[in-house]
Amino acid sequence: MNTIPKKNVDLIIPVYNEEEIIKHTHARICAVIDKLPYQFTLYYVNDGSNDRTSTLLNELNDSRINLIELSRNFGHQAALTAGIDASKAEIIISMDGDGQHPPEMLQEMIELVIQGYDIVQTQRIDKYQPSSLKKKTSSLFYKLINKMSNTKIVQGTADFRAMSRQAVDALKEMHEYHGVLRGMIAWTGFSTIILPYQPDERSGGVSKYSLRKMLSLATDAIFSFSLVPLYIGLSFGGLLLFLALAELTYVLSFWIRGETSTLAPGWSSLMFIILIVAGLQMILIGFIGVYIGYIFQEVKRRPVYLVKKD
After folding, report:
1. What pLDDT score does 2 carry?
2. What are the backbone dihedrals phi and psi of residue 274, each rounded to the nearest 5 degrees, phi first?
3. Which of 40, 63, 275, 298 sits between 20 and 30 A of 261, alpha carbons compared?
4. Which residues contact 284 (CB under 8 A, 6 or more apart)?
């Protein structure tokens, strides 16, 4: 009797200093995938951990594990990219190694890809922290990026998603040094379904996503997917030209009426205008500088990540 070959599924799991919970996370994933009729490969991407994360992963002695060791900490997006580049399966699922992405959703995500969706994007629904600073700043980020860019990113989306081989191959064609995967995947336009989920509490360790890293991710997203900052500069320039024309018209009116003697010296107002113009120029030059900096880093063609070889 002919048997139908099992579909191959790759799990991409970036980890960074997760020695406290990595065994628990793996055991929980295995408790789910051991019951599913698919062939799994688990790509753990060690993003330059300086604790025992790598040692503990090797001790798991699971033949399905493929450990990718990065030479240093390149960041979450780079680690995800390393796993995606290494993947070969028909279905690829990325999830975090901190235990907050529930593996119990894997079966539903795989089934949706099999039904024909190229991207199954999860959406974080956090009911227990309605007033947290992280939630408010995250909401502000999504509102800004969706107003400033033609690429729409659903609020609350995470890097917990399933993708078809077609979507992954398209994503791998996008060689961006400052890549923001949730924006790049939305940009591809492949058939997508949103799957809400309630994040689990961390079973140990602390979040590695500091305020600095969140701001860096937001900056990458804004400057990678929008030219609005440049248009803001053009608008300010136009406004200043209009104000300069209005001032010129006002001064000329005194000359026409022969009332130049009534014009005040106006040293303070002149300095005020000079300072405003100079400040705006510095801001706008800064915007241009950021874009040039991004171009500079792209044209150098440095790899997004480096893999350590044994």
Report:
1. 46
2. -60, -45
3. 275
4. 232, 233, 236, 237
The pTM assigned to this predicted structure is 0.70
Number of Cβ within 10 Å of residue 74's Cβ equals 20
Question: What gap in Å lies between CA 44 and CA 67, rounded to an integer?
Answer: 5
Q: In terms of C-beta density within 10 A (0-12 exposed, 13-18 middle, 19 or more buried), how is residue 123 classed? A: middle
Q: Are 291 and 231 in contact (CB under 8 A)?
A: no
- Predicted pLDDT at 267: 46
C-alpha distances in Å from residue 167, one per residue of 73, 114, 191, 200 = 27, 13, 9, 27
Q: What residue type is 41 in one-letter code? A: T
Q: Between 247 and 292, name the one with better pLDDT.
A: 292
